[in-house]
Amino acid sequence: MKSLVDAALKPVESGVLKPGNNVGPNVGPPAPIPKADYPKLGKVEVRPVNPAEAPQESINRIAAKLPKNELVSKQLLQRFNISPEVAEMTGPQLDEQNPPEKGDAETVKKLLSNSVDATAIETKTQAIINDIVKPRYSIAQSSLDASCLGPITQSQFEAIAQSANVSTFVVRADKAAERAASKTATSADIAQALTDSAQALDDANSARNAVIEKTNQMAGQMADCTLKTKQIKAAAKKQGPPLYDPISVISETINFYVTVTGSVAPTWKLVRVTAPTSANLLSGTRKDTNTLILSMGRPSIGANGEVKASDAMNNQILYSILGQAISTTRP
Fold it and tell me: Which helix (H) or strand (E) holds 294?
């Protein structure tokens, strides 16, 4: 009976479950946090995991928790020559019967259990990211002033980065069990794999704690930003409606036309010939156009105090130049 109770409470000890409304299998993640519940949000709890603790469940029971561990479990049983009867024994049964394979069975159980616990930590960490961190950030973006979003954005980024580290440590725990299951693994290799597996679980637990720390830090930053947003809105109400500059841009385009014409019409008369036969012998016309574009508006002040034309004034000048170029007839 004790082994069954311990098995039932294992998810609580590893932090996968805690008192409250827990989501059952194949149900999907819970709904995002409603905005109305945001003031009620508390800190996320940190639950330690001991990677050196000997699991009380049987090898087969531990392997059945994760489909990915079933194959490596069979390989470990073959590598250590553990009988099916021993693979079904719980921790108390191993202590009571003390079979020759007890030490190897404990090693296999630790390798598999570390992989299971690391995956459980990964599951909880992803739930924190998807169900707490991201919904909180969405609330912050939609309701808080942009001037104080910087720290909140940084905390979200660091929380997501640490959650990615958790997944990396899960892979390390799985790889350690695979190395120990190799037929060519020596006693030193198995001992090193067991050490790496425990270290990977410990690192995953630390990264999960870092995610929780950043999540709680994010909640505090949102509370500070909420207060600042209220202050900004209160100050804006006191100032009244925004004042708009009545002068935007005044533009005037002046074209100067200079036209020069000339003609030569000499006349001479011979006995039987009169020339020229037309009115003008030579004629020419030249027309020069000069454009003066005046753009008037409120100037802008540069970073060094220099007074210069505003962007609106520059854009108006460019628009006028473009209009002149398009309207000019080309031969």
Answer: strand 282-297
Q: Which amino acid is at 43?
A: K
Q: Tell me how far apart the alpha carbons of residues 140 and 219 are, in angstroms, rounded to a whole number.
A: 10
For 64, phi then psi, to 5°, come to: -70, -15
Handedness of CA 176, 118, 53, 74 (dihedral sign): negative
3-state secondary structure of 95: helix
Domain boundaries, the chain: 10-239, 249-299+306-327
CA atoms within 13 A on the CB side of 40: 5
For residue 73, which of 57, 50, 52 has the smallest C-alpha distance? 57
Q: Does residue 137 have a pLDDT over 70?
A: yes
- 16-25, 86-95, 113-122, range with the lowest pLDDT: 16-25
DSSP string, 7-42: HHHHHHHTTS--SS----TTS-PPPPPPGGGGGG--
Is the pTM here over 0.85, yes or no? Answer: no
| Burial tier of 178 (Cβ tally within 10 Å: 0-12, 13-18, 19+) | middle
Residue 30, preceding bond cis, omega within 30 degrees?
Answer: no
Is residue 159 pLDDT above 90, yes or no?
A: yes
CB 170 within 8 A of CB 201: no
